[in-house]
Structures are given as structure tokens and as C-alpha cells.
Amino acid sequence: MGAVMSESTSEVLVRFRNVQKSYDGENLIVKDLNLDIRKGEFLTLLGPSGSGKTTSLMMLAGFETPTSGVIELAGRSLNNVPPHKRNIGMVFQNYALFPHMTVAENLAFPLSVRGMAKTDIQDRVKRVLSMVQLDKFAGRYPGQMSGGQQQRVALARALVFEPQLVLMDEPLGALDKQLREHMQMEIKHLHQRLGVTVVYVTHDQGEALTMSDRVAVFHQGEIQQIDAPSVLYENPRNTFVANFIGENNRLSGRLVSRDGEHCVVQLDRGEQVRALAVNVGEPGSPVSLSVRPERISLNGHSEHCDNRFSGRVQEFIYLGDHVRVRMEVCGKPDFYVKQPIAELDHQLSVGDVVPLGWQVDHVRALDPLEHAE
Amino acid sequence: MSTSVKLAVVAVGLAFVGQAMAKDLTVISFGGANKAAQVKAYYDPFKKVSGINVVGGEYNGEMAKVKAMVDTKSVSWDVLEVESPELARGCDEGLFEKLDYSKIGNKADFVPGAAQQCGVGIFVWSTALAYNADKLKTAPTSWKDFWDVKKFPGKRGLRKGAKYTLEIALMADGVAPKDVYKVLATPAGVDRAFKKLDQLKPSIQWWEAGAQPPQYLASGDVVMSSAYNGRIADAHKEGKNLKVVWNGGMYDFDSWAIPKGSPNKDAAYKFIAFASKPENQKVYSQNIAYGPSNKLAVPMIDKKEMAELPTAPQNMKDAVKVDVGFWADYGESLEQRFNAWASK
Amino acid sequence: MMASSAPMPDHPLTTQDGVPLKTKLARAERMNKLKSLALVLPLALFLLLTFVVPIGSLLLRSVDNPEVVASLPSTVKAIGAWDGKSLPPEPVYRAVAADLIKARDDQTLGDLGKRLNMEVAGYRSLLGKTARALPFDPAPASYKDALVKLDERWGDPAYWQAIRRNGSAHTPFYLLAAVDHRVDDLGDITATTPDQAIYLDVFARTFWMSAVVTVISLLLAYPLAYLLVSLPTRKSNLLMIMVLLPFWTSVLVRVAAWIVLLQSGGLINSALMALGITDHPLQLVFNRVGVYIAMVHILLPFMILPIYSVMKGISPTYLRAAVSLGSHPFGAFWKVYFPQTVAGVGAGCLLVFILSIGYYITPALLGSPNDQMVSYFVAFYTNTTINWGMATALGGLLLAATMVLYMVYSKLVGAGRLRLG
Lengths: 373, 344, 421
Prior knowledge:
The complex is a heterotrimer of chains A (373), B (344) and C (421).
Chain A: H1 2-9, E1 12-22, E2 28-38, E3 42-46, H2 53-61, E4 68-73, E5 76-77, E6 88-91, H3 103-113, H4 118-131, H5 147-159, E7 165-169, H6 177-194, E8 197-202, H7 205-211, E9 214-219, E10 222-227, H8 229-234, H9 239-244, E11 249-259, E12 262-267, E13 272-277, E14 286-291, E15 297-298, E16 307-318, E17 322-329, E18 332-340, E19 353-358, E20 363-366
Parallel strand pairs in A: 3-8, 3-9, 6-7, 7-8, 13-20
Antiparallel strand pairs in A: 1-2, 1-4, 4-5, 9-10, 11-12, 11-14, 12-13, 14-20, 15-19, 16-17, 16-19, 17-18
Helix pairs in contact in A: 3-4, 3-5
Chain B: H1 3-23, E1 25-29, H2 32-50, E2 54-58, H3 63-71, E3 79-83, H4 84-92, E4 119-132, H5 143-147, E5 156-159, H6 165-172, H7 180-184, H8 187-200, E6 204-207, H9 212-219, E7 224-228, H10 229-237, E8 242-257, H11 265-275, H12 278-287, E9 291-292, H13 303-306, H14 313-316, E10 320-321, H15 324-342
Parallel strand pairs in B: 1-2, 1-3, 5-6, 5-7, 8-10
Antiparallel strand pairs in B: 3-8, 4-7, 4-8, 4-9
Helix pairs in contact in B: 2-11, 2-12, 4-15, 6-8
Chain C: H1 2-5, H2 21-61, H3 66-71, H4 73-79, H5 90-106, H6 109-119, H7 123-133, H8 143-150, H9 157-165, H10 173-178, E1 181-183, E2 189-191, H11 199-230, H12 233-244, H13 251-262, H14 267-274, H15 288-312, H16 317-324, H17 329-357, H18 361-366, H19 374-384, H20 388-412
């Protein structure tokens, strides 16, 4: 698998070049999008609603036209190719299975419009049905199936004509949590098995992290960061990404000094923190510090930390495998600390003031967020 | 004002209205210019003389309504204007009261045929050839000219029904007015009439309501039409140059009848007696060009006005009296055949 | 699994007070049933009284034949002994004389004359004439001779056969007449003569014209409904109001407006002539064209609304999905979108067709005599000639034909798939 991955990373399948999209001529929904999608990868476009991710997907599918810029598929400009000639599979949010056709007819549809012979169609439909483990459902109508089954049919229909690219527009949004997690794995495994390129749109960061080879985080019509899930989580490039992906404690202050990779930031109340200088300006400019809750040590564990403060325990939130502790730290009343159940000090109670700390490599000095969430 | 007081006032008002309504006499006619003339000649003066308010209503001669009222014993019409066939039929079917002439007047004063068992003639009217003198250079003189689409190009209006239309067709085919019903009573005569109608069929625009022919004539939709003479005279009065050809006209009576079970029978008799008086009929004939049914009214009308009436001697000369008995016997089958013919 | 593995009790389950569970359940169910029945009852009664009963009694009228039986009771009894070939025997003549005197006094002669006149033209005057001459004074030795002497028609068996045919309180006369058939003097069912035959043509015309109106409405309504669902809400609401506007004006007003617009000196003809498209006015009204124009205008909303409401429920992603799967947009519309609107199309067509079948005012005012539909004749017989037997026979046949069509339709399309919105 790993070999296949590294081999395909080199080849670019889809290229967005300076793509812009505006509906009203005043506001850009997509601002200057430049993106390379590699052959065989699972790329997720992640972002809040209105961030431009779905519009970008629809431009790729051909249902929206770029206001300017070029989209290329396998080196050919797609701008003048109508959607039905792009040969791109697509899975829609509500499956869009044709309700007046049986499952088999739904699956045969893309093949018959391509003029394939009837027997070939039957074979292909049979194969793809067994691929999604729905062999017995060929004669059913979509209305007679559960959400998860319909989802699998929609998936099969987008794959049955063997497109080189499959687009998925929040395909799991309508499913309940358990089924969604199950389907995430199923889609991921299908992708690994078939080696098809997938562009997946979601606003669920968990889903994005679980399934993707790479994730592009969209915000206000721009890609904020595009990286592998682990990189995105551990090394967010700006405050938006840090906030959007995973849980984040944010402390605001001003840059005091910078020294190569590291810097010193003075918090609003006067405390000084040493941090990784990831995205900062000149000394004196505002800075936002980002610390993941699981990187914070409490009590004795904090003795060897570069940054040490004290905090007052406000609340315990029990989550089974771990406990989240809400504390007041440096004047911030919603500072979270994540403690694995095994490490939790049972003496600790609400109102206690305890020492806490974190390493310099785990606090990132980023841009101050311009826009309130 | 409290609600209860308001309610009381409304209740008293309603009671008052109800009382007033009970005294009213409801007279139903065919409306139009005819009704306007009746209001002037009969309704208003009658109210002055008797103190009984006359409420004028209109209908299109649907006996179904009368039958429904009589059958359900909820008669709200007191005096009704009916045409002769409906009068005869309704009398047979028991829809109308048999009249007591001692309450109306001297039977001998009426034009022959006007005093019937269940109805008294109101006036004599005629269905005749009418044309727009502004649109035709030469005046047509008979139904033969009506069929002459070369000399008088344009559409013709005819009543959508067998009655009048078949008589007209026979007269156009050369049957003398006095022989029309004799011929029409034979199957060959009926065939002859329909054959004649076939010739004109493409040029016919059918009318159903009496108000339509003067409209069609005035607008130029048709150049000639069969029409009720009163309607034409009325349009003439309004300044339209419509003329009547009396030759081959068909005349008949409209009559007053009292629906069986009318709650205002006495007032109804009073009204009919009033409307049969010659001096009142004179006023009516001055207002619309229909001839009086009371012989005594004829000398009261001046010569010039008389010339417009169907009862003028020169107008009666070549006219046909509509044979009610004939239509009672052959009406259904001829209307059926007419419908079948017209819808092909 | 849990339930089946649990040991089954030997005796039926009971509630805590010992009553078997099933009984208790049935009781509770019955209460619910009674409650729902009570809720439906007023409507059911209302429908029964205002719809089922009137229509039923109306339909009965089409076979009702009371006149002869009621007015000539002893004649009907006496004529049973007649062989139907030569002239009836003396007792029949005597009975008719007695019956006619009574009928005259009861004022039922008119109804009787009307009914028998339908069988033999001229019967009405024969009865009138005879009734006026009765009773004979002094009583004649032979009523047969006296009556034949009074009017020779009493010597014609056809007049007697008419009475004999109507010796029952029910008759197929009207229903047969409504399909251009009759019972002849020999008692056989034969077609009416071509110059009297009309209703089969009228029925065929009614269905044909309704079908044409339905097709035109569909062709106009489908794209419009599609436009309505694809436009933004504000614009589509405005358009919808314009679609519904005809609903808020009376049919008569609209028909009058069409006459004004379409007549030879009307707006449309003047415009066409002013533009030089024609040099003489086109005949747009008082013919089939005028009827079609006005009927389509009146019935269009009934087609648009069901189609619109079905289209409204179809997500535009179906079309996108089909296109993304490689189908040309037209193919996608035809194979994916259209089949989903079939229910609305079916409902719209059925509505418009059934409403068209019953149209009366519009063809009466805008059409020529050969554009009249069955309802025109129903109204003609109801209002003009008061022949309710004929009116209800035509109406009943129309109702039956409509129901048959509906059944055929529901077999083909499936009534379950019908959606009126």
C-alpha cells in the first residue's frame, strides 16, 4: 500500500490554477484557488459552511463554472467540457438515487448511457453490488432500503463506470453517528482497494482526519493549510486551523522577542510564555498562542516544563477514557486540560489551585485571529 | 349600544322587512326592454293605484324552476310571463292556476286566442327578418333573400332551435305562410326544411337569447337575422339603423300566468286585471313595439306608432300565427332532429 | 430472541385484575374505533345526504317511468290481454276513456301526454282532444268505435303499443335514447334513424375535446410548472399568483372576456390585422378554436398545481446525479426527472379531463352547435324541455364512462401513485 501511495504522489490528476468564483460580482466565494490533487489520493476539502469547499467541488464536477482561472483534469482543461462528458463519479449528500428505478437499474444507468452491451452491464452491476455487499438487493427500490444501504448503492453507482476521479459531497451527513463511523471505514477501505482518486467534502473534522491522505482546510474562500491529517493536527499553520482541527486552548498576547525557532510572548496579564514562532510578526505585534489540552501537564508532571503557571480547577467533565478539566489559567476561565483516566489525581477537587505547565515545542505562536468565531 | 340592544334592533328590522316582503307581489318576466316597458306601464302605476309593491324578477323561461317550486309547494313567484307553448304545457301539467275571468275582465275584449284557460295574453310579438340598413345596400324583402348569400354576402343569425327556424326554411323554399304547418306536419316537409337549412348552414351564426340578434346586427357579425320585433324596435330607438321585414313574420302571445299555489293569488289577479286594461296596454305599446292583447287599446294608439307593431293590419297580412298545438306534438322529435343536424 | 426463548405460559395472559389480556385489548381498541367513527360520522352523514342520496335518486330517474302507470292504471291492466298485433279489445278502449277522464281532472294529462309524445309524435294532442270530448254522452255501445270515430289514430296499433311498452314503472327508454337506440314496435332494440341519432357522436366528441384540452393543458403546464420550481421563491410566488388569478374570477366573466378578445372585431383580430398578419378577421370564437382556448385557460391551474407540487418535492440533485453519471441533460430530464413527475402529470390529466367532460357554459357560449358536449344536452333537457329522464340518462352514462376511464387509468398508472399535491 505504502509503495502505491508514494508512487502516485508524484502524478497530478487535477489542477486548480488561479480559480475564482463569484455569484454576484462583488464577493468572491472562492479566492484564487491553487490546488493540485494527486492521482490515487484521498483528499478532503474541510471547512465550515460558506468556506468555498462545496463550490470548488461543484466547479470540478462541472455544475458551476469558474469566474476565472483554469481547472485541469489529467492535463486537459475542463473549462469547456460539459459535466456529462467529464467522466467523474459523484456521490451526493442525499444519495440522489433515482427513486423510480431499482438498485440494479440505478447502477446500470451510467453504463447504459455509455452504450454498453446489456450482458456487460449485468456483469458489472453484479460485481459492484457484491463489492458493497448488497447482492440480494438488486431488485429493491431505494425507498425500501435503509440509509446506510442507500449510501452504499450511491457509492457503487459512482464507481461502477470506473471513473478515475470520484467526488463526494458530504455523503455521510444524513447518517447517525455509529453508522457514519462504520461507513467512513468502508469508504476508506474501498479507496485503498480500488486506488481511485477521491475528493471528499465535509465540515466534520473527525471524518476528515480519519479518512484522508491529505486535508485542505478552507476558510473564507481560501485554503488555509493543506497537509496530512497528523501534520494538520500537530503543526497547524495558523489560529484558524488550530481552532478548527481538534481542541485548542488559545491565549492572546504580544510578541516580546524572537530568537530563531522560538519566541517570547507576553500575555495580556503580564505572564511570559516561550513558544514556537510559527506565524508571528514583529515584536510588539499581537499573537495568539495555541496549546492542545493533552499536552498540558498537571501538578508534579509539570516540574520539567518550560512554561509553568498555576490554575484553579473549575469543573470536571467525565468522558470515560479521559477526564477534561476546566481551569482558570492566566485569567482565561475556559482553559481545558485533558487527563487520561489513569493519570488523574483523585485528590483533586473543584476550587484547588494547582501548578501546570507545557513544553515550548507544544505551544505555537500564531496569528491573532482577525475574525471572531 | 350594548350587543343585546343591537340584536333587538336587527330583529325588529328583520321582522319589518319580513312583513313588507309578505305584501310584495313578485312578477317575473323575461327582462330587457320588455321588462322596462312593463315597469313603466304596469308595475309602477299598479303600485300607485293598489298600494301593493311589485318586485320584478327575471327568468329565461325555464319551466324547470316553476315545476320545482310547484312540486315542493314553495312558490315564491306570483305572476309569471310565459310564452304560449309553455302556457299550454304548464296548464296541462298543472303548473298554473286555472284563471277565473270574472276577476280579470271581459273575455270578449281580448284579441282572439289571448284569453286562455291558464293565461291571459299580455302582448303580441313577432319573430321576423331584421337587417342592418347601414350594412346592406339593398333591402331584403323576404326569407328568400335571407338565403341569397350572393346578393347579400355575410353571416345570418337564426335561433338555435327547430322552432321558427324550420318555418323560416320552408317559407324561404317557397311555401306560403298559411301552408307552413301543413307542410311541416309531413315527413317530406321536415326533410324539405332541413335540406333548405343545409344550403345556408355555413353562413349561420346561431343565437339563443333575444338580446343577441340586435347586438350581432349592430356589430356587423351578421347582416340579417331572425329577431323579436320588439328588440329590433328598441335598438332602432337607440339610434341603430335596424329594420324589420314583416313579410313572413311569425307572431304569438306572451301571457300572464299564476303559478299553482301562489300565496298572493288575490293580488296577482288584481295585477293581471290592471295590466289588461286598454289604457295601461296603450302605455306599454308606446314603450315597446309589441301589440296590445286588448282590442280596445288599438284605437288609442296613433297610426305612426301602430306601423311598428305586429298587430298592424299591413304587418299581419303575410304573417304566420305560431301553431302552439303543432309544436306541442312535434316539438320533441323536431328539436331532437334539429340538435342532431346542427351538431354535425 | 428474548421472547421466543421465554417459556410460554399454559393459560392466556391476564392483566392484574384477572381479565384476559386479549379481552382488555379488544375493549380498548373498540373504544378507539368508536371514537374515530364518531369523528367521521358527521362528514359521512353529510356526504350521504348531499352526495350519495341525490346522485342515486338522480340515476334512478333515468329508468323511472311513472306517467303511464300512474295515469292509465286500468288501461295498463287491460292491455295485458292484448296480443299486440291487431287492435286491442273493447275493455282496453273503455279503460282508456275512464282513465283519461280521471287524468284530466287530476291535471296529470300533461305529464302523460309529454311522456307518450316522446314515443309517438302527436300523442299529446290526441290525448288532449280525447279528454276534451270525454265523457261520451250518452255512453256508446262500443267505446272502440266511438274513439276511432273521434280520432282515427285510436285505430292505429302504434299508439296502443306505446302504452303497452310503458306498462311498467321502469323503462330503458331514456338510457337507450342516450346511446341512439330505441325499442321499436316489435319490441326489439334498434338504432335510431340517422337523422335523429346524435348522442354517440356527442359522447365521442366530448371525450375527444376533453382529451385535446388535456393534452394542450399538459403541454403548456409542464414547462411552466418546471419554471415555477426552478425560479427563486419571490419570483415564483408572483408567477404562482398569476397562475391562480383565473381561479379568483368567475367562469362567466372569463368567457365574456374571451368573446370580447376573440370576436371578429375584437382585440386579437384588430391587432393581427393592424400588424398585417391577416387581411380579414380570423374566426376565433363561436367555433372549436374558441372553446379550446377558453377551456385551456380555465383548466390550466388544475394541471399546473399537481405537477408543480410533485416537482417541488423532486430534488434538483437527481438531474445533477444523472448528468454526473454521463447522461446528456435532455436524456437525464427524460429518464430521471420526467418519470418522477408522472404521478403529478397523471393527477393533472385526470383532473382536467374529468372537469372538461362536464364542461357546459364555455362551449355553450363560445362554441357552435357542433362544439357542444354532453353536459349541454343535460342542461338542455333539464331547463328547456324538462325531460329529466333524458337528462339523467345522459348524466348517468357520462358518470359511468368517467368511472370506467378512471379505472382504466388507475390500472395503467396506479391510483396509489396519484398525487394531487
